[in-house]
Design a protein that fits this description.
Number of strands: 9
Order of helices and strands: EHEEHHHHHEHEHEHHEHEHEH
Organism: Oleidesulfovibrio alaskensis (strain ATCC BAA-1058 / DSM 17464 / G20)
CATH superfamily: Phosphatidylinositol (PI) phosphodiesterase
Strand content: 5-15%
Shape: globular
Number of domains: 1
CATH topology: TIM Barrel
Helix content: 25-40%
Radius of gyration: 18 Å
CATH architecture: Alpha-Beta Barrel
Largest sheet: 8 strands, parallel, barrel
CATH class: Alpha Beta
Domain GP-PDE: 9-287
Distance between the termini: 27 Å
Protein name: Glycerophosphoryl diester phosphodiesterase
Number of helices: 13
Structural class: alpha/beta
GO molecular function: phosphoric diester hydrolase activity
């Protein structure tokens, strides 16, 4: 299973090595593997025709050329990810933006070379099946975050579709499933009692910061109630004390998104299992870049 394949102090590449390549592309996955990450993380949502695709945003404009490609006759382009079939999403350039925007300053610093930039041009939006084939071929464990489907709230089809693809690609022992949606996690647990599950939390509102009463015992009890063994808190709303208390209660804690090496060491020392990072090349000991 997933946790048996990674070390006690693991580094997980957030959306692949997204400081070295365009996020959630197969190029980012290859970079994550090359720089020594112990596992990688991706986001999955559903295309209009029911294909689970690897993409983070509900809007296509930040990381693709959809605004240009889908503009017709002066009308405003439809940019919502879920309102396009997979063939349309696959036709997008999900890579060229990286060189222009340089989201982590790695182009300006020279860490990303001109040759690497050329390879990014035309990178397609992957299907989940494609990503899982890569995971299986390289025995590279993956954390699949199931994004909430904002255009079809309450629609659980994505759960069945994701689980079916995991089984079809023979990746059952290589995956950890996570979500901000408590309902999704309950449905995953209903359909697949054995798969490792993680609840994500962030501090957008007080209610979203931590479940239950925010204490370690309250969080642990809530997680067990929905069938999750792991907790993924945003590093800005947690601290070493809470991580230590949760670990003592048997909860696996994976903290996101930590790009500072000293902060990563602090969370690992407190008992965090995984540090989810945009910069695995800087956090993996002897990272190969």
């Amino acid at each position: 299973m997933f946790y048996e394949l990674i070390p006690a102090h693991a580094v997980c590449a957030h959306r692949g090595a997204r400081s070295l390549a365009p996020e959630n592309t197969m190029l980012a996955a290859h970079k994550a593997l090359a720089c020594g990450a112990h596992c990688w993380e991706l986001d999955v949502q559903r295309s209009r025709d029911g294909v689970p695709v690897v993409f983070h945003d509900h809007d296509l404009s930040r990381t693709t050329d959809a605004a240009r490609l889908f503009s017709h006759g002066g009308s405003a382009p439809v940019l919502q990810t879920a309102l396009h079939d997979f063939a349309q999403l696959r036709s997008l350039d999900a890579g060229s933006w990286f060189g222009r925007k340089d989201p982590f300053g790695t182009v300006a610093s020279g860490e990303v070379t001109r040759g690497a930039l050329a390879a990014m041009e035309g990178q397609p939006v992957p299907s989940l099946a494609e990503a899982l084939r890569f995971t299986r071929e390289h025995s590279f464990p993956v954390n699949i975050e199931i994004k909430e489907q904002v255009h079809s709230p309450g629609d659980m089809r994505i759960i069945t579709e994701v689980l079916d693809i995991i089984q079809a690609e023979d990746c059952a022992g290589l995956v950890l499933l996570s979500s901000f949606s408590h309902e999704y996690l309950r449905e995953v647990r209903r359909q697949w009692p054995e798969v490792p599950l993680a609840l994500l939390s962030e501090g957008a509102t007080p209610e979203e910061t931590h479940p239950a009463d925010g204490t370690a015992s309250g969080i642990a009890g809530y997680l067990r109630g929905i069938g999750a063994q792991s907790y993924h808190p945003d590093h800005t709303v947690t601290d070493a004390g809470l991580v230590r208390e949760l670990a003592a209660l048997g909860i696996t804690v994976n903290v996101w998104t930590v790009n500072d090496a000293a902060a990563a060491r602090g969370f690992h020392d407190a008992g965090a299992r995984c540090i989810i990072t945009d910069m695995p090349q800087r956090l993996v000991p002897d990272g190969r870049g």
